[in-house]
Amino acid sequence: MIILGLAHEFTGDEAFLEGMLEGMAYLLGRNPNSQSYVAGHGTYPLLNPHHRAWATQLDPAFPPPPPGAISGGPNSDLQDPYAQEVGLPGCPPMKCFVDHVESWSTNEVAINWNAPFAWVVAYVDEHLRP
């Protein structure tokens, strides 16, 4: 989506901005899982990402994820034991996701997803304001 934003910036072609909006729609829940991969947003928001501090699912003393944190989303490799044990092996690639703190292969929160997401949100906000 960053590449689409830069293409929009350089060319002014609204199709690139529309492509970014489609990507945002996917992340916020218009996807095969009807799952928002963003905490605090969407009908079915991300609740239990794999994160050491936001592990309220394991211990209520820990805080939930803050709004705007984004998970990596579906991963058909299913490297973690939790994803393998809950019946995901053999799932269609875009459906290989479980919102559980122990599923690090499908539900990890990392800087390499959150930083670009922050850039895209800021870009879309700047270009869609009246």
UniProtKB/TrEMBL annotation:
Residues at the active site: D99, E108
PROSITE patterns to which the protein is assigned, alphabetical: GH9_3
Gene3D superfamilies, per the entry: 1.50.10.10
Documented EC number(s): 3.2.1.4
Domain Glycoside hydrolase family: 3-121
Pfam family, one: Glyco_hydro_9
MF terms (GO), sorted A to Z: cellulase activity
Any single GO BP term: cellulose catabolic process
InterPro entries: 6-hairpin_glycosidase_sf, 6hp_glycosidase-like_sf, Glyco_hydro_9, Glyco_hydro_9_Asp/Glu_AS
Segments of this protein annotated with the region Disordered: 57-84
Family from the record: Belongs to the glycosyl hydrolase 9 (cellulase E) family.
Name of the featured protein: Endoglucanase
Classification lineage: Bacteria, Pseudomonadati, Myxococcota, Polyangia, Nannocystales
